[in-house]
């Protein structure tokens, strides 16, 4: 008997008797003999709790996390401070352990949180309808593509190269399935090439997909770029970083039909990439094509206000092959974390945080641009993240900075071969002026050392 | 004086959203100062790209935020409150140890783009989890990328497409039994295939004649779960596998029911090519009120080349040192990414901790006890009123869950399965899954899991008996139920007809 | 159908202890193997020193332990559930940040006997907290050792004894006002002194005539809290201090009410020699249902030599390096230890985090708002029925709390303060402190604290109004209250007459 | 307005109006002007949550905790593994934030926990009555002395030198207050000198105070030693380590009138010494003299089972100067942690843990005794802790071990000058055989290095 099961020898005897078999093994006889494993799994024996803890703590110790290295890496996930109340609330059994709220009478807590969350995301994006969350960012882009196909009965997406590479790749993966074609539009000076975009959009275009701030940190003129979509009756899909929406014009005010993105910056820790959540907002027009759960307000038989899962007729458990999406288990707890973080920031704090990010980003950008061997990759206006060019091999420079306890940024070369010398630097409220100055210093030293061909570790 | 309760305290407390508790000027967060020379915002970002008004987020101090969400939390029923026999959802205990190890800074504050050289612990953990799941499923190659079961299904179908495409084949159909879970057909459509339903035989398994009639070279894949959603093991699985493989199709295993067979039987040995595993079911990741989860897939050799990118690999060191771990992007035949970065790592930590805790014996014992508990509860519900009004849909030993039919109850007492479910709420139980699988009239799908005590199973059976006898006297009691929940029956139709999906806000 | 509730769900669920949920053979813990050569126990320890039967602890698996205690927790009302105006207890918000920093391994897993060289962070934190409390109290020397307020009181009295002994004096009496908290006289007796009560004047302060009459050279100390337990600041404090000091006594400040004056007035400046601070009141340490807390003491120069041992000290480095921190045991005049090791360090971390969070302005603003909230609620309760039935005991502006008298209510409506308190439970409020201070008939002592919203204060005042008007119609409603709590009024007499203080267990 | 207060400018205006003053400052005018501070406190400005976190994390990083150094230090507090459910449960608001349960109708959770805890401690100690906990160990010994004085009307304590030095010192501190005399009895071969004890006890003795296992880890024959107390009508007070009571004969079966001790090993982390709790159990005879809270079982008006604070007539808030003790706020949350830990260990696990400690202690003792330069301080039977003698300066050896990441033990010299070469070594279930072997190796190496006068850090 493990620490998690309760059937004692006596229990087993009584239960087997009631079932009318002599042993539990008999119950497994419905499995044809040749398909029974007939040996223990080739896995280690179970461990005590303290041994499991020590084992995993030892593994964790072999990761250079943001407590060990000052983290300027972003690329969609950011080292924001997650307030303590987020953990305190999300760790409550009542939020942590229930299933999806199929029985609304005993799930009002979770359902109301979804309703509050939908309201918050709707406020952030400036679009009237939000769902309760999807898996994460890039797959939300793919889901938007699926929605657009259903809405327009067209099969082509025009996608900016400024959209996160993971989103573009995920969209491509899904497209092989639901059968769509992707046309990519390049960047000019850090921004989507407007002319090329206009030229690429036509009557076959289901959706124009942009990101702002884009992957290089540039703030796009979504409204201007989106005109082409409107013109040809394509949906305008805008991916965005929710943390920038305290100061940036919301996609909904720029003509977006769908606004979505990676939710991690809101109340979710880095967790080496997940779990986080994807947010997904749209116009009223798309409400019955939305993917994922949506909570709605209603009343009980006595007239008490209450909340339920609304519009379930979109979903797989009702509509099966005709569902608007296949998603079932999503990321409810992560959406709760976001809601608590947003309530904690509040209307004023959320704006102040946006301003703080803009100011520190500007400072960092200037500071780094002044470093010998570093220049800006582009001059476009940026928010919370920006790209530079290094006059030394990026990988080597990153190694040298790592030795000094700094994760200096995200190397662009892998996903943007045209920028093999590019480095993407991200700012959060945790990155102080001192840390930014240290980064500038470390980069300068690393580049100098590379030029003089000094040995790594020599510094 | 007990006239003084006509409503429970929670019912008396009407729902109020956090926006309705907001007051201009209040705040919880105090932010650090910029600490750098500041510029007017318009100098940094063109004015036309800036927003005029900040979003109308709540304005409220920390103490009231905590009270608001703590109070809301009490309006949830949860696994730690009581018995939760929600069929197909495997509501097993969520060990807090797993939360503790997932929260270690080395996991929680590790950036997903950290250089693999500096994330060796995380990559090794993922690799170890891949190995463990491969062994449990009997399929050697594992990708942890899918974010949940349905994501794993989509992945499996895209793998199938890539596999056939690589052979120059174009297939259009995917077979799935009429008992299959809704995500199966939904995934099929998303993957660009057409669903073909396969009938169920008298023993609750696949109707072989129907299957034979529908198997042909247009069939890309057959999706099954075994034991299936009736909680029954399909004895013909070997023959089924042979049929599909003969026509060159793939066999997909929906792993939602893996909790029945861990350490006893392996999908790979049954002939399946692709399996998804719901870590939030068999491997104890908490459900979180609707996620997060993770749906890793395990596949056979022939499918391996197409696995999503990147793949976590172990490299033996050339210079005699220990092995190292890396992310392999160089997979030319890969279907590509299904999402950002490496997947729901925090979930991997919890599930790996669970596997380490139980070990080989523990996992087998968990499945054995799950099956024992299910059969015992089935036996208890075979007695007395339940036996008569709620007969078992297919009279066989079940695996980890079983399905009852409320048809006689409805006919004889005018009580729908929904009424029974709602009345159970007053008794402090979460109801079973209702009206699924569709095949069974007024279905009640019951999955107790291994972590429940015999006392809980008995109490549940007694409650059903009591509700049925109460209904014989007066069916209205159940028809009007529940009475003691924070709210009573809700108008779901209105919520769909005239959806109100966000709080309207003034300024 | 609401006939279906005569009991709330919690009332229906009868109390069952964890021992009653135990079943032989069940377990939660799995321990590591010894991993060393084992010997029969009797070879290691003489058989006559070994026990025959292990203690009859519960036998229960982890899932049911979690359910048991989660369920029990819901049978508590707590600060995060609602308004908790428990006078003298300062039920202010408990920031979760403080729990987070206290849990850092560098704090939580630091052994108290670690060499100071290797505990510099902990010692510096303690030193910084000492400095902060010294500044807030206006007394430069601080010992963090006492474990709570009453422990601090005992410490203060032992310091007084040591101080006088050092002067060859033998004093026998300690003065305390009749409004003083029970721990004051109890501490006096434990410290080997005799208590002499001092009367209270018409303005709620010390009756000077009575004080003068009782002050003489047998008096070792006067214990006061200012503002006192009536929430009133004694304007004569300077004169009082002078009187005591003239006869060579010490003046002790019970810091339980410090939340009224942080950053506005300092006990040291009032003339006090010794102060204790309840970190679990003014400095946000959660109360934990009855602790833990901490009761650091701050003292004047003349008392300093007698402070408990060891003392945390800062040493400037001789070799130009930074300062270092140490435990100083070499204190010949010290009264010695009051407990093991260095005190409730985990509490120090939380309170220091709180001081860092609020800073100088924040602390002053907290006290100001506490006083504002108290006076506002006092004003609200001065209106309408409350004003008439529950008059304020002393009509003045109060500081952070105030005391009402239920005497008219009792006379006019036959409602005791206790009845009002119990009825408040049905309205979802924690009642004020009742029947204290003793001086006031049917006393209700109300302390809202600074972290409550105006809305909460208004709702509380409205509830009192409603209860009083309800009582005018039918006093029985309140006399029988509460109705909706997990249990209703309990038989406390029986629990003392025939005490059952543990669960009887079979084998 | 701080993040913890809610009074907005409008709120303040309305409130001041209702009060009838123009400013909050007016309310402070009841403080005589000269006594008003009239300046800001000389403390830093408030910080944001992330800054406070970083500040305290930086301090914490300067402590060598048990995660950083393998911990063989005990001396009353031990590095046991605290199971995760202890934190999960004690961190629930419902347990974390209420006050002492003065309103039983809304405090049944906390009161029932106290009742369960009292039952557990009563089972452990073999005495029928337990309170709900006191501050911690040593001050509990002082409270026992106070009880004994009340019970016997005598003023002398006979105390074994095997009792924890902190307990003896605390008893002395309190005794100066309540006026008692202390006679100390020495140790022979690690055990209390029985003859000397018998000689010291007389008709004036209020209590005989022993500890087993004593400070040197030796298991005392409490029954034999206690005879003298019985003979002269003194109370027998026994301090003990609760973690040893899975296998050691409980004090109650050895004739103890009072059994008490430091509760930290049960479910409480080290926390650099606190908060933990003291447990305090006694015979029925002493029930009305007990210090601290005691929960009792009763019924409500409808006949429902419930719990209340029983025997409050002992306490300060009722009896004031006549109270049996002055304690008010105690350590309820820490007692809850202990109860959860004990339920988690369970009847079997608790015994197994005792056996595990005995076996590993025996192994460690043998292993160390075999090290060149190390010998046993005494041969008496020990449990979970034992003392050795080092043939090199203890402080220097400890420094060398610390450099190797091992906190090798507790030096005896400070409190037992007669054992200036003594080291006390403690074992928990977290100390594996490998770690014990490392300790042996490190001690051997350190002693050798000291002999050859090698520089520290050279190793
Ligand atoms: C049988 C079955 N298949 C598939 C799924 C889908 O899994 P998920 O919710 O993780 O997407 C579920 C879970 O609801 C299920 O029960
Ligand atoms: C006025 C007063 N003095 C002293 C105390 C005793 O403090 P503690 O409970 O921390 O021992 C309290 C708290 O109950 C109090 O309110």
Which key features would you list for this structure?
heterotetramer; A: alpha/beta; four-stranded antiparallel sheet; 15% strand; B: 507 residues; alpha/beta; 12 strands; globular; binds pyridoxal-5'-phosphate
Short description:
The complex is a heterotetramer, with two copies of chain A (459 residues) and two copies of chain B (507 residues). By secondary structure, chain A is α/β, with parallel strands linked by helices.
Radius of gyration of chain B: 26 Å
Q: How do the SSEs of chain B run, as a string of H and E?
A: HHHHHHEHEHEHEHEHEEEEHHEHHEEHHH
Give the mean pLDDT of chain A: 97
Bound molecules: pyridoxal-5'-phosphate
Helix content of chain B: 25-40%
What's the arrangement of strands in the largest beta sheet of chain B? 1-7-6-5-4-2-3
Helical run tally of chain A: 14
> Main β-sheet of chain A, in a few words?
7 strands, mixed
Which sheet architecture does the biggest sheet of chain B show? 7 strands, mixed
Radius of gyration of chain A: 26 Å
Which overall shape of chain B is indicated by the principal axes computed on the Cα atoms? globular
| Tally of DSSP helical segments of chain B | 18
Strand content of chain B: 5-15%
Content-based structural category of chain A: alpha/beta
Please count the beta strands of chain A (DSSP E, at least 2 residues each): 17
CA-CA gap between termini of chain A: 56 Å
């Amino acid at each position: 008997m493990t620490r998690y099961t309760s059937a004692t020898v006596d229990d087993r005897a009584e239960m087997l008797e009631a079932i009318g078999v002599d042993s539990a093994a008999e119950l497994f006889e419905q499995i044809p003999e040749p398909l029974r494993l007939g040996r223990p799994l080739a896995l280690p024996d179970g461990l005590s709790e303290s041994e499991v803890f020590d084992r995993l703590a030892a593994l964790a110790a072999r990761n250079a996390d943001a407590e060990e290295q000052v983290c300027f890496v972003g690329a969609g996930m950011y080292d924001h401070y997650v307030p303590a109340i987020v953990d305190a609330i999300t760790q409550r059994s009542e939020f942590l352990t229930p299933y999806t709220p199929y029985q609304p009478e005993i799930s009002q807590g979770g359902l109301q949180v979804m309703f509050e969350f939908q309201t918050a995301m709707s406020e952030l994006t400036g679009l009237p309808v939000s769902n309760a969350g999807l898996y994460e960012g890039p797959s939300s882009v793919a889901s938007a593509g699926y929605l657009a196909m259903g809405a327009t009965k067209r099969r082509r997406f025009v996608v900016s190269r400024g959209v996160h590479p993971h989103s573009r790749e995920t969209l491509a993966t899904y497209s092989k399935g639901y059968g769509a074609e992707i046309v990519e539009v390049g960047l000019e000076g850090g921004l989507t090439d407007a002319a090329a975009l206009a030229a690429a959009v036509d009557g076959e275009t289901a959706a124009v997909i942009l990101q702002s701030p884009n992957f290089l940190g540039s703030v796009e003129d979504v409204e201007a770029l989106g005109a082409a979509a409107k013109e040809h009756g394509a949906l305008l899909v805008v991916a965005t970083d929710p943390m920038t929406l305290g100061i940036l014009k919301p996609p909904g005010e720029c003509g977006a039909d769908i606004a979505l993105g990676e939710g991690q910056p809101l109340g979710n820790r880095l967790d080496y990439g997940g779990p986080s959540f994807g947010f997904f907002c749209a116009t009223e027009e798309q409400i019955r094509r939305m993917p994922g759960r949506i909570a709605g307000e209603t009343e009980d038989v006595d007239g008490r206000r209450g909340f339920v899962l609304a519009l379930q007729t979109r979903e797989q458990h009702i509509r099966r092959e005709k569902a608007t999406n296949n998603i079932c288990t999503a990321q409810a707890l992560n959406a709760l974390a976001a809601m608590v973080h947003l309530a904690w920031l509040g209307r004023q704090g959320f704006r102040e945080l946006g301003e703080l990010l803009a100011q520190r980003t500007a400072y960092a950008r200037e500071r780094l641009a002044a470093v010998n061997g570093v220049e800006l990759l582009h001059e476009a206006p940026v928010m919370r993240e920006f790209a530079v060019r290094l006059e030394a091999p990026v990988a080597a420079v990153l190694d040298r900075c790592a030795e000094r306890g700094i994760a200096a940024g995200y190397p662009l070369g892998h996903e943007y071969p045209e920028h093999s010398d590019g480095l993407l630097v991200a700012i959060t409220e945790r990155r102080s002026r001192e840390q930014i100055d240290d980064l500038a210093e470390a980069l300068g030293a690393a580049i100098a050392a590379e030029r003089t061909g000094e040995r790594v570790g020599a510094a | 004086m007990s006239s003084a309760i006509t409503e429970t305290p929670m019912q008396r407390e009407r729902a109020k959203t956090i926006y309705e508790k907001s007051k201009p000027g209040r705040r919880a967060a105090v932010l650090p100062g910029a600490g750098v020379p500041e510029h007017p915002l318009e100098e940094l970002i063109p004015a036309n790209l800036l927003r005029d008004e900040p979003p109308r987020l709540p304005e409220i101090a920390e103490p009231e935020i905590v009270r608001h969400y703590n109070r809301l939390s009490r309006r949830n029923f949860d696994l730690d409150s009581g018995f939760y026999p929600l069929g197909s959802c495997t509501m097993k205990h969520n060990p807090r140890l797993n939360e503790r190890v997932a929260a270690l800074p080395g996991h929680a504050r590790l950036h997903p783009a950290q250089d693999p050289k500096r994330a060796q612990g995380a990559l090794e953990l993922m690799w170890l989890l891949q190995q463990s799941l491969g062994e449990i499923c009997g399929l050697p190659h594992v990708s942890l990328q899918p974010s949940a079961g349905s994501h794993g299904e989509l992945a499996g179908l895209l793998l199938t497409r890539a596999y056939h495409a690589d052979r120059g084949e174009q297939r259009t159909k995917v077979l799935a039994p009429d008992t299959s879970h809704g995500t199966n057909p939904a995934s099929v459509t998303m993957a660009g295939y057409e669903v073909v339903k396969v009938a169920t035989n008298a023993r609750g398994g696949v109707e072989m004649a129907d299957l034979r009639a529908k198997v042909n070279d247009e069939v890309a894949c057959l999706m099954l779960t075994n034991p299936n959603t009736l909680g029954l093991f399909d004895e013909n699985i070997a023959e089924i596998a042979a049929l599909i493989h003969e026509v060159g199709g793939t066999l997909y295993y929906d792993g939602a029911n893996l909790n029945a067979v861990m350490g006893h039987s392996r999908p790979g040995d049954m002939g399946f090519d692709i399996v998804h595993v719901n870590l939030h079911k068999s491997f104890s990741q908490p459900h979180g009120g609707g996620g997060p989860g993770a749906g890793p897939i395990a596949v056979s050799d022939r499918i391996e080349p197409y696995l999503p990118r990147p793949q976590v690999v172990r490299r033996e060191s050339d210079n005699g040192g220990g092995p190292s771990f890396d992310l392999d992007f160089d997979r030319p035949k890969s279907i590509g990414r299904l999402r950002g970065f490496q997947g729901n790592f925090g979930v991997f930590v919890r599930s790996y901790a669970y596997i380490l805790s139980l070990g080989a014996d523990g996992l087998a014992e968990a499945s054995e006890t799950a099956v024992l508990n299910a059969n015992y509860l089935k036996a208890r519900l075979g007695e007395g009123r339940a036996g008569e009004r709620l007969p078992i849909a297919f009279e066989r030993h079940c695996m980890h869950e079983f399905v009852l039919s409320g048809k006689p109850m409805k006919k004889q007492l005018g009580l729908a399965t929904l009424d029974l479910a709602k009345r159970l709420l007053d008794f402090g139980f979460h109801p079973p899954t209702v009206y699924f699988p569709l095949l069974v009239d007024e279905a009640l799908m019951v999955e107790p899991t291994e972590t429940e005590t015999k006392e809980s199973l008995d109490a549940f059976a007694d409650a059903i008996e009591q509700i049925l006898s109460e209904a014989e006297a007066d069916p209205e009691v159940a028809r009007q139920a529940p009475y003691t929940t924070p709210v009573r029956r809700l108008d779901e139709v209105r919520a769909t007809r005239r959806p109100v999906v966000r709080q309207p806000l003034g300024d």
